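re: that chain from earlier
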Amino acid sequence: MSEIVIHGVPGSPYVRSALLGLEEKGLPYRLAAIPLGGTRTEEYLKRHPFGRCPVMEHGDFTLYETQAIVRYADTLGSGPSLVPQNARAAARMNQIIGIVDWYVFPSVTVGITAERLMSQLFWGRPADETNIAAALPQARTCIRELDRLKGASEFLTGGQVSVADLMLVPHLEYFRATPEGAKLLEGTSLDGWLTRMGMRASMQATQAERLRKTA
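^ sequence. v structure.
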């Protein structure tokens, strides 16, 4: 099999989701790390015209959009499928993926997590409390609805990990490290789910600090 190369910023939740898919399916890969802001270079834009990450290269095949990469990995690797066989569970998986992309990312990850954890380090300014306050109502809705949709299941769509789990977990792991995230997740089934997910070998292998040392 040709080498799988993932181009992306270590620490990006979407890059981590792609790597989680490869890890869960037992597929070897190489992370070609790019710096923050590196997605706007002329060279990178040839791979991804929208200037986002990750991008996967597998031989002469190039693919971007995280869930597309994870679904592709699911067709190549061994072990249980990351897509439920039950039609309703598969539909729920797709619904949760949509929630991650359309609601969790802008409100939870950009609106709160990035402000709390990244503003000083990368932007040289304190967290913008106005941005955080504006994002909180949507973030509350996200956590409440995801908790409801998960219900009593071990994972988001049932008894085994799906694409939905891999898409959501990097966002909420960072979010739980913020005061707002810790408070909103406390007492929900998502809190225990995050702990269980964090114990998986795929999560251990894709920790940001480990990726930066090996990339």
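DSSP finds eleven helices and four strands in the chain.
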